[in-house]
Amino acid sequence: MLKSFSQKKLLEAGCDEAGRGCYAGPVFAAAVILPKNFYHPLLNDSKQVKETNRNILRQVIEEKALAFAVASIDNGEIDQINILKASFKAMHKAIDQLTKKPELLLIDGNRFITYQNIKHQCIIKGDGIYANIAAASILAKTYRDEYMYKIHQEFPRYQWNNNKGYGTLQHRKAIEQFGLCKYHRKSFNIIPKQIDLF
């Protein structure tokens, strides 16, 4: 069972990102402050939750959270500043938008750039330990998936409705056949050199 919080005194926000390892599309991040008594039986690390249940959880989290926010950094900026910095920047943007100011940030992963003067704690696989990080992972994932479904309409040949921009075999084959489009991360070296961009 997920822990509700890591301590009792400070107002905590859980933070997580989605899409860091993708070949295409933005990286999304979310920050969530949950009530101390929040519980939902479906809540877990978003990778462990079916898509239909993630969408159910998104509604519940948005209704019950004391504050939540989602932000993204597009592939162009990812190419300029690198994916790690883009992930941190997306988290900072999400924290910026919270309507309540957290006193402690729980970050999924092992690294983070300090946000203002707020204390933070990095937790490896934190989305499977703390409810607020799991909630952030659900929001980041569902918002990103929604975005990838939208741009799939523009470039259906890459099948982003199935792979969400990850480097699956079908996605790699489409890149070999058609080259890269404007949503691909050019800095990821994902294309053979002889293929033209369009």
How would you describe the overall organization of this protein?
This protein has 198 residues and is α/β, with parallel strands linked by helices. The protein has a single domain (12-152), classed as Ribonuclease H-like superfamily/Ribonuclease H (Nucleotidyltransferase, domain 5, 2-Layer Sandwich), CATH 3.30.420. The chain contains six helices and five strands, in the order ββαβααββααα. It has helices at 51-64, 75-81, 83-96, 131-152, 160-163, 169-178; strands at 12-18, 27-33, 67-73, 104-108, 119-123. Strands 3-2-1-4-5 form a five-stranded mixed β-sheet. The radius of gyration is 17 Å and the shape is globular.
Task: Annotate the secondary structure layout.
Layout: E1 12-18, E2 27-33, H1 51-64, E3 67-73, H2 75-81, H3 83-96, E4 104-108, E5 119-123, H4 131-152, H5 160-163, H6 169-178
Parallel strand pairs: 1-4, 4-5
Antiparallel strand pairs: 1-2, 2-3
Offer a few descriptive terms.
198 residues, alpha/beta, five-stranded mixed beta sheet, 16% strand
Which band does the percent of strand residues land in? 15-25%
Strand order, main sheet: write it out: 3-2-1-4-5
Gross morphology:
globular
Number of beta strands? 5
| Element string (H = helix, E = strand) | EEHEHHEEHHH
Number of domains: 1
Helix/strand structural class: alpha/beta
Helix content: 25-40%
Give me the oligomer status: single chain
- The CATH homologous superfamily is called Ribonuclease H-like superfamily/Ribonuclease H
| Number of helical elements | 6
